[in-house]
């Protein structure tokens, strides 16, 4: 075997073990007995120790030095392995295992604290997680910016300063549009009780309509909807609320965007570093585009209105136009995942600033609740009513995902660019969406983005797909046009 072949064999085994670790995480959030949390923490730490040893194996450096890429895909594999190896060798094995152990434990503590509305039960372990991630970031940064070093795990090649510049261009126009929409009379919302079992059945149909292959996946329930896995085993979760079926339906479409991305990556890249999405920003571009530009479009909501009436009867909405307005209703709220399309990014920008302060040491975990509530009141004009509406609503920090939150808004920016391009290429798309068929758009995304996996760097991938460098301009134009029409601004 050549050095390249030996390296790829090693990488495939490592990726397979990483998928096992991911499956343990999926189980922890869906089916694991509550009392099993301490044991699961030890299992995750043990497996992370094995993975870290494989990623830092001295042979990897030797193979990388001698390996010759057979083609462009091979060159991309080497680029990704080289990056992962360089990062792994900077982090001590002790720290990698301890992070896995503490974050697994913290996830369970967060879930209990959220259910009990008790942030005091969660903040001490969050302080541990922050300290460990700060230590990891310092090791990776080697004297550079610690937050930037952590950001590379989710959006390679991006800095906080670059994100801040784009977000600064978004914030004032979003705030202005939000204020104008909230100043108008709110459209009617749905009313009635919506059977969770019927919601779940419709959600499954929606997932399949958007291209989710259930022979390689499954849909379960969880506190926080998520997608897990890649290749031949990609699972998603959703949640139901008898008073709010949109929570289930649009969470499912969102997670289908993530899952379809993973399922549509070229099969030749299975269980290799290229066999996953290019970045979390690109990943989020798929899920947000599926959910919003497609799923909340006037054409698709007309079809969905008819499906809702057929399954639930009277839903308190008279016609398709009123239903479209209800789906896109700008409303007061606390929960990021339930936020309307217009206000969603303001939730993300709050978290981006707070987590940078936590990692920089400018904000202590013990002061996070007050900082969150003050910032939320400043941004939205009202304060959270309970901890689960505030700092306890998201799972991300409990599992150490510092640097992840900004990729949600970056994904929205990418989605704006992709949507503008696919609309140029698919002028008759609304006819298909009105029939409940988003496949022309999802196939366009499969061909332009998803099948490539990690072949290209994130921004290069978006530019190749759209013909233009990523920017906030298409997203702002889309939001201003859509909500300007809805609210007659």
TrEMBL record:
GO BP annotations listed: proteolysis
Cofactor section: Zn(2+)
Record field: catalytic activity: Release of a C-terminal amino acid with broad specificity, except for -Pro
Cofactor note: Binds 1 zinc ion per subunit.
CDD domains: M32_Taq
UniProt-listed InterPro entries: Peptidase_M32_Taq
Group of enzyme by EC: hydrolase
Keywords of the record: Carboxypeptidase, Hydrolase, Metal-binding, Metalloprotease, Protease, Zinc
PROSITE patterns attached to this UniProt entry: PEPTIDASE_M32
Protein origin, superkingdom: Bacteria
Pfam families: Peptidase_M32
Enzyme nomenclature, EC number: 3.4.17.19
Record-listed Zn(2+) binding positions: 254, 258, 284
Signal sequence region: none
SUPFAM superfamilies: Metalloproteases ('zincins'), catalytic domain
GO molecular function: metal ion binding; metallocarboxypeptidase activity
Family: Belongs to the peptidase M32 family.
Purpose: Broad specificity carboxypetidase that releases amino acids sequentially from the C-terminus, including neutral, aromatic, polar and basic residues.
PANTHER family: CARBOXYPEPTIDASE 1, METAL-DEPENDENT CARBOXYPEPTIDASE
Official protein name in the record: Metal-dependent carboxypeptidase
Organism per entry: Rhodosalinus sediminis
